[in-house]
Amino acid sequence: EMAVMESEVTFDNLPACENLTISVTASNTLQVSTSAEVGFTTNEMDPVTVSIDSPPDDPVERTVGTSVTLNCTWDSTAYYFGWYKDGSLVYAMDLTSGEVLNSTLSATSSYEGRYSELTIPGSSLTDSGSYTCVVSCEARDVALDDIPEALRDSKDVLFYGVPETVD
Question: What strands, in cross-sheet order, belong to the sheet with 68-74?
């Protein structure tokens, strides 16, 4: 009869977004050993700070026809970056390959620099909205509500029209 033993191992402080392999070796009372390797990807990004740090005003208010560039920074390894406007994805990039996955608006992003700049044209009142930057370990199109608040930051941008003069 063979005895089966179970054991649970917990690892703390694993690097975020990394592929890891763990080797496990077990032996019985007869000194017969067996080993196996287990591979997995860590997908936790905690702690991480994501911040839209410029422009500093919130909400950002500009006249129609004036563009705005939002600068988002983060302080942990991220493989995916996205910008959302009012909950809809407007820009997404796989930071490791540089592949733009979705681009309704113009943005630049850097894996090494841990930043992204989104340019909002401000050509009409419809460019107004809540803009959110998001970082993740995996490149995927995810509903904004499904992304943990720790992995995102938002800023409201309001474009207003110039009053017409009456002659």
Answer: 50-54, 68-74, 115-120, 106-110
Q: How far is CA 142 from the centre of its chain?
A: 10
Q: Let me know: does 103 contact 149? Beta carbons within 8 Å.
A: no
- This prediction has a pTM of 0.71
Work out whether the CA dihedral 47, 77, 110, 139 comes out positive or negative. Answer: negative
Closest C-alpha among 80, 77, 98, 83 to residue 139: 80
User: 5 Cβ partners below 8 Å, 6+ apart?
Assistant: none
Paired sense of beta strands 106-110 and 99-103, if any: unpaired
Say how many Å lie between the first and final Cα of the chain, rounded.
100
Q: Cα separation of 16 and 137, whole Å?
A: 8
pLDDT in tens, 78-128: 888 899 999 999 999 988 888 898 899 999 988 888 999 999 998 899 999
Cβ-based neighbours of 133, under 8 Å, separated by 6 or more: 50, 52, 70, 72, 81, 82, 83, 84, 116, 118, 152, 153, 154
